[in-house]
Write a structure and sequence with these properties.
This protein is an alpha+beta fold. 29% of the residues lie in helices and 28% in strands. Strands 14, 15, 16, 18, 20, 21, 23 and 25 form an eight-stranded antiparallel beta sheet that branches. A five-stranded parallel beta sheet has the order 2-1-3-4-5, sandwiched between helices. It has a four-stranded antiparallel beta sheet with strand order 6-7-11-9, with no helix packed on it.
């Protein structure tokens, strides 16, 4: 899915041409009837739509109460954290034999009985799955795995349709995983979304385009604030994202007035949002050279947006030795490409008063299986000597961006920016560090994930100097003590990964009385 701008532009076209059967396009009347019940089957995003007061189910019901007070619709979200298309087949089957309750994140809105919800009146059925298939992941980036996923989705839809006998069925595209459509996982989600549309045509059901709605919402938000995250964990949308999802579902159900109401509320919330920085420019940063890890210089595309009414010239300032395709910009918005060697921890490009700190990249290897280290949660075993790194295979780069968990942190490694990866596999990350003197530093492993398990082996100039780990729910490991020599130091980290998210940072801090300002980095 490249790029965000391109995808955001084509999303409405796809929605119009593929998502809605021709007969619906010619009939603007709402699909719901007074008193209808809508059942939503999904994962934690569906769960949050009920368990948070700003969730999209509450947004929809509030909107309908304003524009259609006599409709008396009922919405029943059945959300299960961590569940997939395949696991939902088991949930549906188990609910025929025993009591199965959907997840409960709120005492005010407890879980719902799945069997009762699917057996009693169901007029419209909305199925929203796929995030966890890619987040964990449970699917591979192969034709065979994608075909199996689609076949499982068809089985689930048919089982639910046979049991609930709804008049209307909708399946949704999958919300983005991270905010970069070029990420390895979002490229797989793009394939899955295409299959959702194929399945909708083949099974004569409708599509609700949550992916397009959230991508469009983020574009509007980022034009105002470059570091705003509408998904605090890059999976679960906050209020603005839920407003966008609620409006999209209303549109798909033909409830135009409710959709307009939620669009207006989104615009109101957006206009009230104070930009995170006082700069007159917002921006998005896209690394363009991730597949060329041996390049001496790297390129970055900066999409910029003017905040305020001025459209005069803004100067573009670059680090020494860098170049750009423009040294000033005018107008409301645009994009420029900057090229250089990001050898400082942060390499600042300025557009007007907006300072964009481009982090030095890491070199990361392709993932490889290493099942011998996985015995329960015991993963900190002896790792292969780093000379084996040369046999790992292909390498790419990862570079900090607000579109990823590590944001612009130069010590962060967001692996899925470059590679897809699977459960229980490993990869290497490396960079060379030049120090102006011998120095001791403190190093700390951290992550910003809500779910992930990692084991680490740290090699400095060919010798293993540390072993550490981060388990699920623990976001920082005890600090390590390292010694950098004067000149170049080769740092290699082997990361053994269990499942779920794949971001961590290896942050160096100076000893008391020292600074790390003189450090320089190389990724080759």
């Amino acid at each position: 899915m490249n790029s965000f701008r391109k995808f955001a532009m084509i999303a409405p076209v796809l929605t119009a041409s593929l998502a809605i059967p021709r007969q619906v396009l010619s009939d603007p009347a709402p699909l719901l009837k007074p008193g209808d019940t809508v059942v939503l089957c999904g994962d934690s995003i569906t769960c949050n739509s009920r368990s948070h007061k700003w969730g999209y189910v509450h947004q929809i019901t509030n909107a309908l109460a304003q524009v259609s007070p006599n409709a008396n619709y009922t919405f029943k979200p059945l959300g299960f954290c961590g569940n997939t298309v395949e696991s939902w087949i088991s949930i549906e089957a188990n609910s025929r034999r025993t009591t199965v309750m959907s997840n409960n994140h709120s005492a005010q809105w407890p879980g719902l009985n799945v069997g009762d919800a699917l057996t009693n009146r169901v007029d419209a059925l909305v199925v929203s799955l796929g995030m966890n298939d890619v987040l964990c992941p449970f699917v591979r980036d192969t034709d065979e795995s994608m075909a199996k996923w689609k076949a499982n989705y068809r089985t689930l839809i048919n089982h639910l349709r046979e049991r609930a006998k709804p008049r209307i069925v909708l399946i949704s595209t999958v919300p983005p995983l991270t905010n970069d459509p070029d990420s390895a996982k979002n490229r797989v989600l793009a394939r899955m979304d295409a299959m959702v549309r194929e399945l909708a045509r083949e099974e004569n059901v409708l599509v609700v385009d949550y992916q397009g709605a959230l991508a469009g919402a983020l574009a509007k938000i980022r034009a105002r604030s470059p570091d705003y995250q509408d998904t605090p964990d890059f999976v679960h949308p906050r209020e603005l994202g839920n407003l966008a999802m609620g409006a999209e579902l209303c549109r798909s159900l033909g409830e135009k007035a409710a959709a307009d109401f939620l669009d207006a509320r989104f615009a109101e919330r957006l206009n009230a949002m104070v930009p995170a920085t006082p700069a007159q420019v917002s921006w998005r940063l896209f690394a363009k050279s991730l597949n060329t890890p041996n390049a001496d210089q790297l390129s970055y595309e900066i999409e910029w947006f003017r905040i305020g009414d001025d459209t005069g010239a803004l100067a573009v300032e670059l680090p020494d030795g860098w170049k750009a395709d423009a040294r000033s910009v005018t107008g409301r918005n645009g994009k420029i490409t900057v090229t250089g060697s990001p050898k400082s921890a942060s390499n600042v490009v300025k557009i007007g008063s907006a300072a964009i700190a481009i982090p030095a990249p890491w070199r990361v290897s392709a993932p490889f299986d290493f099942p011998a280290i996985w015995h329960g949660q015991t993963y900190l075993t002896n790792a292969p000597c780093p000379v084996a790194v040369s046999a790992v295979g292909e390498w790419r780069l990862t570079s900090g961006s607000h579109d990823y968990l590590g944001a612009l942190n130069p010590w962060s490694i967001d692996y899925m920016q470059s590679w897809f990866g699977m459960q229980k596999d490993s990869f290497y990350a490396m960079r060379k560090i030049w120090s102006d003197k011998d120095r001791e530093v403190r190093a700390t492993f951290r992550n910003a994930t809500f779910s992930g398990t990692f084991g680490f082996h740290v090699f400095l100039d060919g010798a293993e100097v540390a072993v550490s780990g981060l388990k699920r729910g623990k976001n920082e490991a005890p600090p390590l003590s390292l010694k950098l020599k004067q000149g170049w130091n080769e740092l290699i980290i082997r990361c053994d990964h269990s499942e779920w998210q794949r971001q961590f940072s290896f942050e160096l801090q100076p000893a008391e009385g020292d600074t790390l300002n003189a450090l320089r980095f190389d990724w080759k």
